[in-house]
Design goal:
Two copies of one chain form a homodimer. By secondary structure, chain A is of the alpha/beta class. Chain A is 31% helix and 16% strand. Chain A folds into two domains: 2-96 and 281-309, NAD(P)-binding Rossmann-like Domain (Rossmann fold, 3-Layer(aba) Sandwich); 98-272, 3-Layer(aba) Sandwich (Rossmann fold), CATH 3.40.50.720. The relative contact order of chain A is 0.14.
Amino acid sequence: MSDTKPAILLVQPQLAPLGLMLEAEFTVWRLWQGPPLEASRTIGALVVAGDAPVDQMLAEGLPRLGLIACFTAGYEGVDLTWARTRGLKVSHSPAVNGEDVADLALGLMLAAWRRIVEGDALVRGGEWRADEKLITPSLTGRQVGIVGLGVIGEAIARRAEAFGLKVAWWGPHEKDAPWPRAASLKALASESDILFIAARSTEENRGMINADILAALGPHGLLVNVARGALVDETALIAALKEGRLGMAALDVFATEPTPPERWADVPNVVLSPHAAAATTGALPKMFALTRENLRRFFAGEPLVNPVVE
Amino acid sequence: MSDTKPAILLVQPQLAPLGLMLEAEFTVWRLWQGPPLEASRTIGALVVAGDAPVDQMLAEGLPRLGLIACFTAGYEGVDLTWARTRGLKVSHSPAVNGEDVADLALGLMLAAWRRIVEGDALVRGGEWRADEKLITPSLTGRQVGIVGLGVIGEAIARRAEAFGLKVAWWGPHEKDAPWPRAASLKALASESDILFIAARSTEENRGMINADILAALGPHGLLVNVARGALVDETALIAALKEGRLGMAALDVFATEPTPPERWADVPNVVLSPHAAAATTGALPKMFALTRENLRRFFAGEPLVNPVVE
């Protein structure tokens, strides 16, 4: 029976939970289990986490490959020019997790600003003393800057306003929005107490949150990144935190993932999160449903629901 | 010179930082430093953290005492009937920290719901694995219940709405509000995914968040307490968390403070915070200014700014 079902290849082990659910409709191969050579003649689609670079050698060794289905909203791991040249379609799972990502972004902001992780450790360590308060700055009236005003950026903005925070944003393109657009990324960082990164990651904006931008955010500023590690010069970020040139950071994404813990061992004022912003019981089933539907349509010869390249 | 200034007594060591700032205008005695006996003849006002019981024996040994100035918004440590009988005035510092307390309340909700403290420990401990996501429930569309719709409760409600949460509340008195009032505290807990405690603590509501209310909140519910530990039956809370009858808790306040860390060592799904909700650089100066002004007015024979008993 399984030969009659279209064959797909799951590329990264974190996609393992999808396998069982896709097996009803597809013959599922798992790259990390070393599929047999003969599978290469049948695989019609790759399922990938879109933030990791797609192995082009692997793809080019699959003669029947026609679709790269990104389980994620992000697809920066796929070279779209290459995909077009090779006649490959690309799909992704957009806009299903904006609210969840914004929730974690605000949670990380509050955890850093109000020192919630530190407070928990202090109580558990028996270091809470009656004569020493854990005193933090007030948030009310502070200025928030949002880099990238897409679905996630707008969801962050709406939440921030309810906290009495002022909101501005920057992105490369003007758009109609109820919040002012800063003159530049650097101007936004200079004006902000809290800078949220919510931009799509591309080759063009790699490392755009560099030493200069971090200096503009300054020694009392907080950087919150729920987008992609590649957007930030992480070496410059660590140096700025260690030297007190940046106040705080709260990071859900990193230059490499999982990030090596020793990299952060002596970095002060940072909250670390294991790329969990979109990993919710609400978002994952929707991402799964979109991925399955894009696969189904591809093999049925129908237009994709969420095409990046078609 | 100091004899010409009115004399005041700071009661708890956590009020120590006030001492230096009040010395310009007052002769400041500190109870924890053992003031000399002759000071008892001069002290006209006590400055207290209003949540701790005022020592009536101490107060009655001060013949010139006329004011109990609570540095805090809360004044449940003062027996108001006793104060009136003794001819003592009572002041407090209300409504200066509602936004700050609501900020931490939402921060604790997000930290518990999205497992932010756990995520940070996981990354630092090198336990973040590529093939195992930290998956949490989505918040969007959940039901929030707020116990006590005062300044803090309303500030929590406004923030919660921006997260796409539905809001209801309960308090002993009907009031005009844009959110529905539940039929009872138990009905509110039953309907809620997240229950915020934001009520004033009184003798009447001691332990009102009891085993019955926690059962109504249930095995997927989250209790957030930024009010007072006395409102919750903490023994019942710990039992419910250990047995999985309550989903999660995030606590800024405790039955005794500082809470003994061993009490929480084997309690799962709880975020602990060292009574820090109102301890902000924004709120503390305002609380200080109100306390100083109430003291100044009392000694000048003028009406108090924030009287509880006058």
